[in-house]
Amino acid sequence: MLKPIRFLMIGGFLGAGKTTTIARLASHYVSEGQNVAIVTNDQAYDLVDTHTLRAGGFHVGEVPGACFCCKFDDLVGTIGDLSEQSVPDIVIAEPVGSCTDLVATVIEPMQQLFGDRFELGPLVVLLKPEHGRKILCSTSGRGFSPKAEYIFLKQLEEADAIAVNKIDKLTPERQQELLDRLADRFPDTSAFGVSARDGDGFEKLIDASSGSRKNQSNAMPMDYGTYAEGEAELGWLNGQIAATADEKFSLDDVTLAIVSSMEKRLTTENCEVAHLKVLGQTLNDAAVANVVGGGSQPELSLASEIKTLNAELLVNARVAADPELLESIVHAAAADVQESLGVSLKVGNIQRFRPAPPQPTHGRE
Ligand SMILES: Nc1nc2c(ncn2[C@@H]2O[C@H](COP(=O)(O)OP(=O)(O)OP(=O)(O)O)[C@@H](O)[C@H]2O)c(=O)[nH]1
Ligand SMILES: [Mg+2]
Prior knowledge:
With 365 residues, this protein is α/β, with parallel strands linked by helices. It folds into two domains: 5-231, Rossmann fold (3-Layer(aba) Sandwich), CATH 3.40.50; 234-353, Alpha-Beta Plaits (2-Layer Sandwich). The chain has helices at 18-31, 48-55, 72-82, 102-114, 129-137, 146-157, 172-185, 202-210, 224-232, 251-268, 323-341; strands spanning 5-12, 36-41, 60-63, 90-93, 118-127, 161-164, 190-193, 235-250, 273-281, 286-291, 299-302, 307-319, 344-353. The strands form two sheets. Strands 3-2-4-1-5-6-7 form a seven-stranded parallel β-sheet, sandwiched between helices. Helix 6 (146-157) crosses helix 9 (224-232) and helix 10 (251-268) crosses helix 11. The radius of gyration is 20 Å and the shape is globular. The chain starts with a strand and ends in a 12-residue tail after the last strand. Bound molecules: guanosine-5'-triphosphate and magnesium ion. Residues 18-19, 49, 94 line the site of magnesium ion.
């Protein structure tokens, strides 16, 4: 009989650091000689994460168009496609950061329907400190509505283990405060700090990923009305921009400038950013710039360090904003950067919407 594929999901809110964590975890397994495949997921098409992970040399399939729970058959089919050349030892899946109830709608059905093909690993959920502090520690400041916060908390509630990510950004006191709040709210769930970017504490995440699932006798209670409304508060936009110039320009500068201009304009409009990411790419190189919340600095998470005459930019924005406003902000940001950096920017195909109410294939019939 074939050895089952170990299936792991790394959950957590938009911008929590799932893709960064998955890249580091996959590198760890590869260094152990394991064959790893990754599956990304989004409500729309043109995923920055798929390109980012492929640029890192990983074997990546994607499930676009809706979350894993609503596209369960596509998830299983994508893993089948990834297995065509060689069957992976481990599949790491990144669910959409506004998705929850993954145990009932993805993990349990995989166990029940395909338990012979897959060995179901634990659900490790990353806590995003930029929004976690406000939600868990009741600090004041900008953030999301209670319905979007409901999703954030439900993601933590169903976790087998919680990793407080980005500890490199937190003082030891702030990290401890978050761990204490997690211990109060979720006393049966192990929690630890980690920096997916720098690798600090990562051995705990590797340990948690190699552990087993918690015994959950009953499905987590879920209010699908609140979940749907919380998700629909987020405007979703995936779009393309073509960049050209007569003289070579820095791909990193243009990619970062688009994110920075969008962030400034969204702040002026008082719209909370969940995650705004832009990929700039040429045939051989890629840059990624991100903003993960109101007041967070735009940053380059992947630098290309190249100059080029043309590039394709991919914008993935998840913001508590009207999708039409988001689209107008993409156009305005392109005009800003065209003027400041002298690069011609032509906005192409844009998909923008509010996510439709989740209708899981399994688990909540
Ligand atoms: N300082 C710091 N930044 C981090 C860490 N992990 C991730 N980030 C940054 O956080 C931002 C979001 O990281 P991603 O890995 O794209 O987050 P994600 O959860 O995959 O985001 P979505 O797929 O949009 O939900 C990027 O700018 C990363 O560089 C960390 O440990 N420390
Ligand atoms: Mg991601």
